[in-house]
Amino acid sequence: MSDIVDGNNLSIRITNTGNIISKLEEKYLFNYFFRGINSKAKMGFGLGLVLTKKILKVNHATISYRSSKNNLNSFEVKFPLS
User: Fold this and answer.
1) How many domains does the chain have?
2) Tens-digit pLDDT profile for residues 67-78
3) Which among 32, 33, 68, 80 could bridge 72 via Cys, Cβ 3.0 to 4.6 Å?
């Protein structure tokens, strides 16, 4: 986890190693009831990221996902400072 103040934003980045989310699944991460192929054996409803994004939006913040070539998953949350 890291935090960065960049201009008028505070960015918090959470990064982990593990299975990279496929480009196909990446498009649906923030959709209602979407669950990745690796989560089928786990309990859940596919609402966590959707609700997170909505709560952040109400607070004028954003969340995004990206993967890197060295098998890192990274979610970044940006909060406006003003």
Assistant:
1) 1
2) 987 889 999 999
3) 68
**Matching residue, tokens 């009831």:** 33
Task: DSSP for 25-71, please give it.
Answer: HHTTTTSTT---GGGTTS---S-HHHHHHHHHHHTT-EEEEEE-TTS
Task: For residues 29 and 41, give the distance between their C-alpha atoms in angstroms, rounded to a whole number.
Answer: 18
* β-sheet bridge partners, residue 4: 11
> pTM, whole model, 2 decimals?
0.86
CATH for 75: 3.30.565.10
DSSP H or E segment with residue 23: helix 23-26
What sign for the dihedral angle of Cα 17, 23, 24, 28? positive
The domain in which residue 55 lies consists of 2-80
